[in-house]
Design a protein that fits this description.
The chain contains 4 helices and 7 strands. With 169 residues, the protein is of the alpha+beta class. A 7-stranded antiparallel β-sheet has the order 1-2-3-7-6-4-5. Strand 4 (108-110) and strand 5 (113-115) form a beta hairpin. The chain is globular and about 40 Å long.
Amino acid sequence: MEQEAASFDDHAFAPMVSLELNVAMFKSRWQFCDRITEYLSDILGQGHSDPARYSNFLSVATNELIELAFRSTSEPGRISFSLYRSATVNRLRIVFPGEEAFGRKHANARSSERQPVPGAGSGYLVMKSDGTVLLSDLAAIFRATIRIEKDGGQGIQIIADFPSAEDFR
């Protein structure tokens, strides 16, 4: 994806859907990850010439990010999943309570490279158990911009910008 991730406050994004759950309820069943992924992916596919293909392809990345939030959420509170759309980008935003839930070093996954997160937000490098970089891998595969930042005082937000173009290979 050639353009940088736009600021969350960018007015070019129109809200599509938002889902909010109690963290304890969300964490009570692993299957909620699949159900939420299916719901959000179906909505992401709307408006495309081949909605099933687009939603199926993006469901892989969406599911990984939702499962990442599932594994990383341990504090009481609310978790929210929101979708936004601009002319060229679909944005998934997951917000949940947590101080240093990802606690590695600062990073931003953009396409296949990692860069420091500009501005006041903090980004975190997310490592899989074998030491490889999960977000960088997802970003490269889906030509997406994925970042993790602090959301206010105690929250974490995962923001993933996917190109709305249908030329996935």
